[in-house]
Records
---
Amino acid sequence: MGNWATADQVWACALVFIRVGAIAVLLPGVGETAVPPRIRLTFAFLLALVLTPVVADKLPALPGSVGAMGGWVLKETLTGIVIGAVLRMMLAALAVAGEIVSLQTTLSFAQTANPLQAQPGTTLASFLTILGLTLVFATGLHRMFIGAIFNSFDLFAPAKALMVGDAAQLIVKTVGQAFATGVQLAAPVMVFSLVFNAATGLVGRVMPQFQVFFAATPLNVLMGLAIFAVSLGTVGLVWIARYQDLVALFMRA
């Protein structure tokens, strides 16, 4: 007859599953809307089974009341959402870069369905978002996600009070960094657009009879996309390096 899990072991696994499940909802790759919920839950459950024996000494004992259990569940859920949201926010940098490039090249009207966000977006923003997700798996960054989840039990230990101030500061810093990174990634196209529009305005003033916008619009699109294509490799390298630095924050516990 096999051994049965004790109540404390079930409780410990449940707490780990709650945190990991909340992270899996937002985690890049697993947390996409295109991934079926059963796959996310299966991933979270298997990861919880693996992590529970390792982090069991950091988990609280089984409480004696239902109210206390509900408090622990709520705390772990909020902790998982914060961690998953921070890991998800850096994808917004690519979306910001794509939106800026689309605006500068007059392609912002070309909307398409973003399979990762389940909402309309510009074609370039959707392309960059999918490119970022591909780079995550191609560079092995997804393995660092598991390490970050493990170290989160040291950074946000269940036995300690919920660090609301630190979590809010981390989220605000990550949002600002994601927006700044998006602007930096789109900087080559922004510089080109500024110079091109200045030259177009100068030609329009020198030759008022010339239909400058009729000739400038196709050139703006073609040259803007050409600069975007040339800088695409650098965009991917810079973004993945920034993402690795963010995930490394969870690895320093």
---
Amino acid sequence: MDSLTGKIALVFPGQGSQFVGMGKALYDASAAARRVFDQADEVLGFPLSRLCFQGPTDELEDTINAQPAILTVSIAALEALKERLAEAGQRVDPTVVAGHSLGEFTALVAAGVMDFPSGLQLVRERGRLMKEAGEENPGGMAAVIGLDADTLAAVCHDASNGGVITIANDNCPGQTVISGEVAALLRAMEMAKARGAKRVARLGISIASHSPLMARASTSLRDIMIRLPLGVPQIPVVANVTATAMLTVDDVRQELAHHVERPVNWTRSVAEMVNTGATTFVEVGPGQVLSGLIRRINRDVTTLSLSDLGLPADVRDS
């Protein structure tokens, strides 16, 4: 088992990292993880844990289920990690946390801004509102590989033609996700290829996350957030939108007010964590997508997975 040394950043994955079977190995190995899954089932009033472990895939991938499922697996992993380190006389003591899109809510739970049941209900509602917005304003997303930011911004501008198309996720240098109305998205995909993108791939999602098509969902979430009691972050949380640390409740409310309609600036977020001294990044949750992105953003930092820290790894159900 690798030891946790240096200044630690915990990072939490977003939607798309879900797969049938996720969390099962943690559930079997860790009493702390079992408590999280049992609590999630109780809070939501249906067996979310069984959906994570057994599927079916289409039900797990429905955004209304995927969002609370990923949050639950990530928090279960965090609790299992704390349990494992405590047995070895160590503790998780991060200097900063962050999450990609949905993962930002996991980071806020980890930082003590909201408790797990509140976070769970909030992302379940976030999923419902985003699904509703997607049904009212169908859209899509596509990954663009190998095109610089300025060229892609020009592509989105030129492809809009009265439709909505925008940069949604700046994941790492040379890997960006665009989001918007289907016709504008298809135009932008063709233009990106014509202007030198190495690869353009439509994502299997009918929701234009992190675009203006989510404005109504954003307003509804903002109304919920106003009523939700929040605590001061116990650990700085680097925000997706601003790529700066949220240190106060007001910082959190301002970030989440527009979270689903504004871009995820992951490249800048990782750079900010490195600037604050983070040297070791631990990806807490299903998959290892973020670790790969972080290595492309900064080759000098260490990235660790849960299995590196002695926790059992889930096997993707084929």
